[in-house]
Amino acid sequence: MPVSRTDIANAGSPEALAKHILQAEPDLSVPVPIQELCARLGILGIETFDTEEFEGGLVTDAKRSVGTILAKRGGEPRRRFTIAHELGHFLMAHHVPDRPGRFLCKSSDLLRLTAKPGDPRQRMEMEANRFASLVLMPPHLLRGAMEAFREPDLQHVLMLARDFAVGKEVAARAYVQYHPERIAIVVAGNGRVQRCYRSLSFPEIGCAVGSPVPTRSHYHSGPHRPNNAGDIAACSPDIWIDVRRDLRAPALYEQVYRQQNGFAMILLRLEPVPEDTAEERRLEEGWRHRFHSGRR
Question: Can you give the pTM of this predicted structure?
């Protein structure tokens, strides 16, 4: 593999870093050979991390010239993301470890997508996650894979996770980001909302993290076969988003994918509200005039 540390010397962000790597590696295969990439970029080895407290780690010297990645045992997709995350720490010179020469990352660090202002550690973990996602699911390869996907469907997420050898949630985040329609995916655990991912055009989801999945969601109607994406069905939009009473309600659809460990993904698809015809607007304005003037 031709990429080298020289190719990425001036990259100051996870996006720039991933871009330089992908430009130097135009023929990357899928799934991305992340361990080969690590070896080319100064990682001497990848060792098993035998601990319950941490998911991954990085041991390196003061100049960040070489390093060793530590990754906890687990499923291959999860381990691959951990390796890519630690590679991000290694390559971004502005990332400073908690203790000299040693990064230690918990499971929660590998889920972090936002950071509190003024919290450099959270920002480093967020950047390492962005880098890992971009390297494991290169945008140009992801767009090519998604050209075959028309109507939103959780089966597509499962296919992406399989083909790119990433976790289902990593694939779900990418799917929401790159799909052209207004969609969101809610991750639920034991009946409660854990995380929400939505496209830029999808409105804010009203259910707070930690709150129960709405009782009128198809999540609660069964039976749902584990590890099988259910049918896409219409649902009441006001259980997930704010619907103004004076406007026509949009059409919202749900699809549920349950896993055996108590987790589930819920796909939300929002269809645009059709524009009123001139006749409908005329009748609506007449009705409102009569209502506000007291005429019946």
Answer: 0.87
